[in-house]
Amino acid sequence: MTETEGLFSDDAFDREPREVVPGVMHLPGWLTPRSQSWLARQWDDWGRGPIPPHSPLINGHPMSVRLTTLGWHWDSSGLAPRARHFDDAAPLPVPDWLVRWGRKAVQEAYSPSHGGSWPALSEKEVAAWAGDYTPDVVLINYYEPTARMGMHQDKDERSSEPVVSFSVGDTAIFRVGNPQTKSKPYRDIRLASGDLIVFGGPSRYMFHGVPRILPNTAPADCPVRSGRFNMTLRMTGWDKQ
Ligand SMILES: O=C(O)CCC(=O)C(=O)O
């Protein structure tokens, strides 16, 4: 980044909770350093589960991220209760504490106190809605500093409830697109260690991606020393029959 780019980066402005576009709320530093350490320890444990971190193939090419999932398995054909390329193993379940974090994230992100234009509900209405939010799949991506993720929509779920996303490690450039096309208009924001982003309503099916990781930007006390973990919590709306 050049010196003048730095003057106009997100970091040059305060990192207060804000609506990026209607339906997309960004809450910087939502995870405390302690929660980030806790998550990093869980990721280590989950990575030793029945389906090890792997790079799914898209059109025959491995993704540059390494994926682990909870609740449901994901590959480019969609979500499945079992992983056919891993001896039909079932993913580890989504723990209750993580469901509670998801509820808290939805409630705080869409609190009217942050001034978002969507969903325009009272504090009490948001609390009632968030109380029913029950994510049953979690996708965890590990990005080496050189990894990226192309523009895509999260649309393998039948439910249109929001996606909750936590980041730990190096800062990522996160591209907030639009629901119609992979190209402009989009906005690039920085997701730093501990940041929360929630996208729902008019932006639930927005195209989004990660064009770049900024190496060596994790805080000194961050448990992830190189690269970045991101986890997204979603409600599938599917039964496992
Ligand atoms: O890493 C991120 O922030 C985004 C991850 C993502 O888009 C996905 O898992 O579908």
TrEMBL record:
Cofactor(s) required for function per UniProt: Fe(2+)
Record InterPro entries: Alkb, AlkB-like, AlkB-like_sf, Oxoglu/Fe-dep_dioxygenase_dom
Annotated binding of Fe cation, by residue: 152, 154, 208
Positions of the Fe2OG dioxygenase domain: 134-237
Source organism superkingdom: Bacteria
Coiled-coil stretches noted in the UniProt entry, renumbered to this chain: none
GO-annotated molecular function: broad specificity oxidative DNA demethylase activity; ferrous iron binding; oxidative RNA demethylase activity
Pfam family, one: 2OG-FeII_Oxy_2
Keywords: Dioxygenase, Iron, Metal-binding, Oxidoreductase
PROSITE patterns xref list: FE2OG_OXY
GO BP terms, alphabetized: oxidative RNA demethylation
Cofactor: binding comment: Binds 1 Fe(2+) ion per subunit.
GO cellular component, one term: cytoplasm
PANTHER family named among the record's database cross-references: ALKYLATED DNA REPAIR PROTEIN ALKB-RELATED, NUCLEIC ACID DIOXYGENASE ALKBH1
Protein name as annotated: Alpha-ketoglutarate-dependent dioxygenase AlkB
Taxon lineage: Bacteria, Bacillati, Actinomycetota, Actinomycetes, Micrococcales
